[in-house]
Write a structure and sequence with these properties.
single chain, mainly alpha, 78% helix
Length: 272
């Protein structure tokens, strides 16, 4: 009985998580402009998607913003994690770690409003129109809330690695710069990549902060979809969402296959 209940609970959780996504995928192939009834299989909305310049411009803007912000956040966050690790005072380390986690714990609406007020003030001081700094404001905002996720992913890897390898490299004649990039960085790279992916995902998904900070001349995909909700979300957005879901699924499968091969290749791993 206990086993059946656990299975039922598992199916319930997966149903709540994935039935809405499967419904979206199903209606992206609907021949009619309806979310109430499926009238027939068609690729109509995929054809309209590829003929929609607004959707592709918003997707391009989202990808550019997410890529740049995640790369910048990864570089700064990795350096910050190394700096936090090098701190000798436990009190200072705890204080800096707490401060870096504030953007992650802070409600998005508070972060969005504070960022908006800050950049409006900056534009006023520099005598610029807000449209002129719209992209830069969004980029800085996305880097800001992506940083804690990078630090949170990289710092445990640095703590786990310790100083023994770096000290051995220094003893063998490496400079501190070479010891970090040739010895430490390759060993903490899984944490760096995880942090970059997390920052990329959070940036691509963000709506609240982008809504407050963004300008009218730079619209991301979440902002475009939100603007449609005032009237009606067209089914070509279902098609775009389906393509994004399929892309993420394929990337996850490839990542898991590579991880499995890497584990099996290790001496302690299971052989096929």
């Amino acid at each position: 009985m206990k086993k059946h209940l656990s299975h039922a609970y598992l199916f319930l959780v997966f149903g709540i998580l994935y039935i809405p996504i499967l419904t979206l995928i199903l209606f992206s192939f609907n021949s009619a402009n309806s979310t109430a009834s499926f009238e027939g299989f068609s690729l109509r909305w995929y054809i309209e998607l590829f003929n929609s310049p607004d959707a592709f411009e918003a997707l391009r803007n989202s990808l550019i913003l997410a890529t740049l912000s995640s790369l910048i956040a990864t570089v700064i966050g990795t350096a910050a994690a190394e700096g936090i690790y090098k701190m000798r005072s436990k009190l200072s380390k705890a204080a800096v770690t707490s401060v870096t986690n504030i953007p992650m714990m802070n409600p998005d609406i508070v972060t969005g409003m504070s960022m908006m007020l800050f950049f409006v003030a900056v534009a006023g001081i520099l005598s610029l129109d807000y449209e002129d700094i719209g992209f830069a404001a969004m980029l800085i905002s996305h880097v800001t809330f992506g940083l804690p996720y990078v630090i949170l992913s990289v710092l445990p890897r640095i703590n786990e690695l310790g100083d023994s390898l770096s000290e051995a490299a220094l003893d063998l004649g490496c400079t501190p710069f070479q010891a970090f990039f040739k010895v430490k960085l390759p060993n903490i790279m899984p944490g760096v990549i995880s942090g970059m992916i997390m920052a990329f995902t959070m940036s691509l998904d963000d709506f609240v902060i982008s809504y407050f900070v963004g300008s009218s001349n730079f619209q991301t995909l979440p902002l475009l979809i939100y603007s449609m909700t005032k009237k009606k979300v067209t089914p070509d957005m279902y098609a775009l969402s389906t393509l994004i879901v399929i892309t993420i699924f394929v990337m996850l499968v490839i990542s898991n296959v590579k991880s499995s091969k890497r584990i099996n290749a290790k001496p302690g791993g299971k052989k096929r």
